[in-house]
Structures are given as C-alpha cells and as structure tokens.
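Re: the 205-residue chain
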Amino acid sequence: MPISTDNSLQPIVFIHTQKTAGHSVRMALEDVGYEWKGGVNKHAPPRELNLANHFSFGFVRNPFNVCVSRFFYHQRPEKKNELDLLFKKFSADRNGFISWVHSLVNDDCWYDKKYNWKYTFKTQKNFLSNDDDSEILVDFVGRYEKLHDDFQFVCDKIGCENKLKNFHVNISKRKRNHRDYYDNSTKKIVESIYKDDLEYFNYEF
C-alpha cells in the first residue's frame, strides 16, 4: 500500500489485485514520490486496510486471461517457491494449462497443512469487496484492458504525472490469445469459478 511521503501528494491506497500489472503501477507511483507502508501485505484486500481519507483504487482483468497469465507466470524458470512448484507439476503448454484448470476442482494438491492455496484463486470481486461480498470498497476500479487510460484517470484524480509507460515491465511474452488455451470443459470450469467477475465486471470469453 503506497502512502504519501509529503503534503504535496494526496493520500492513496492502491489495492494490488493479482495479475493486473500491479508491480508496474506500484513502480509508477514510487517514481512520483509514493512509498510503501511497511508491514502491509502487498496483496492485502481493502477490507483489511483503513481507507478513510484516502483515494483508493485497484484494477481487474478478464478472468480467462488472468488464469492463463497466472499459470505461465508460475512456470517461469526463476519461480521456485512452494506455490510455483505446485504449478510446475503441470507441463508449460496448453495441455498443462488444461490439466491445471481441472485440478482446481478435482485435485486436493492445492491444500496442505501450511496453507490453503485455493484461497489465492478467489474472485476479483470478492477480493475488492466487504466481508459479505455485497459492496466494492475502493473508490475506483480500473481495467487491465484499459490500463494506461484508467491509470491516467487515477493520476488526474490525485494530481501526479503518469509514469506507467516507463514501468510496465511484467508483460507476458505469450503470442497466443488466451482463448487458444481453453477447451469446452476448462471454459466451463473458469466460468463457474469466476461467475461473479464475469457478471459484475461484464467480461466475456
């Protein structure tokens, strides 16, 4: 969560939804003077933070694209933590992706004594909402698909320069459209898991 370092910067809370260019957004904010508040999980949901007197915002992304992006992100050679290794049980190709999606409903490998990894696959709407999922808590929800335009809206709102073009560094090198990775069964699984996101944010396959 970035906080203002001096009185010239409007207090903000940036909610970092996974796989929505959050790293690039954070770097762009740091470049104009914002810094991160120590001791706060960078992926903390807004319900765990004090949003009073701050402009709060986050971004969402098409869930079908998020799933593909996340799968191949954890397949990168340098990714080696416990969660990465779970993903690497699957081959880094379309067949592996299809098997991974099926594992979300058919495999208990996402549970262990230390952590329920399935919790990390919750919907973006749930992540941005209050405890009963009835209200989005942030002031503005931008879209990854309009990242630069929507981040410009944030910059205009808080009165800072848009430095995002200098820092959008975690861009996927995939050349295929996310639709190419799905078959009918995996499309239905993701539709079921992320039904709320698809309906609330009006996303389609």
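Residues 86 and 141 are 31 Å apart (CA to CA).
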